[in-house]
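Name: non-specific serine/threonine protein kinase
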Amino acid sequence: MSSLWTAITSSLNPLEKARSLPTDGFKNIETSQLVEEEELPDYRADRFYPVRLGGIFQKRYQIVAKLGFGTSSTTWLARDLKERKYVALKVYVHTSLVHRELPCYGHISRRIADSSHRGRGNIRWLLDSFDVVGEHGKYAVLVFEAAQMSLRDMKLVFWPDGFDEDFVRGAITELLRELDFLHSHGEVVHTDVHPGNMLLGVYDNNLLQKLEEREFTSPVPRKVVSATRTIYLSRLMRPREGPMLLSDFGEARIGPGPHGGDIMPLEYRAPETLLYIGWSYPVDIWSVGLTAWDLLEPKRLFTARDEDGDLYDAAHLAQLIAALGPPPPEFLARNPERRADFWDEQGNWLGLAPVPDLRTMEALETRLQDKSGFLRFIRRALTWMPENRATAKELLQDPWLTGERP
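Structure predicted for non-specific serine/threonine protein kinase:
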């Protein structure tokens, strides 16, 4: 009966016809010029699956535009010929040894089924997954609901001086709702919260048709590397209103922990990760504080670099001291061996990097006439002691977000 019903419904909903994308009319990029993923420090071509515009995966997902790339994957806009809508395909490198994203989504989906928490609506949802085999190995592919662009890219392209304060309030409110769901209901530590993983979703999926149509009117520049590999430039579109979606659970951890190991972008690393102490949900709250800062301000609060631009942990810790004051002795006591690399037994800074002048939060915050409420919010998220950070639920009631006077 089920097979007969499948045959009937399939005949009633035939696959949408695939389109033939242009094969000329685009700019050819010189082979000597590095573009997109080639500019990554550890780039190796064979690690990345050679996705082609117009190509079809699983006999249903036709690639129509490149959306972006990272060290572990490339992301593409595709037309789902079966469901007749746009989706996003994340194609992992074949050298990814641990795939946390798929089991994490399986865990979260079970928690969502038992919850009515409004924060669950801010998860970028996983629709499908499969593997593809290439010349150099097997590549995992995850299919997500389509979105527009990240808040990091929006800021970079359209608002380089920072978003308006009201926009930041709205984005952080949605982020905190999502984290409250993940922490209190999902028992998940995201570990990689930053504007690059906050995506502007779409209320109308057809909005993304503009990206597909642009490939016909103005084919994207590309670099032909070989007969089997072409590197395309990513496409952007002017953003429209949409929900904020937290994405990329590739480094998420299930359970409260404490967990160990390197996590977070270098400039976003929380004090407990720098001191090699077990970590849990508060690392996400630290990231909320830095995310709010980065959305509002043109320059980062912490660069993890010294005045010469050199990147190292002592420079990072020195900036933390400048902004937050010295760490409490009880925090340093949690890993005496690591403490000894930077502080003496009395907790005095050894000076492996100078504590920079004029890097207080008050000095670095440049855009608000009344900065007191914003800085109070930031200080509730950025504390040396993880247990002293406010929870996502507590921050949602913060006067800076709610508009109330403290």
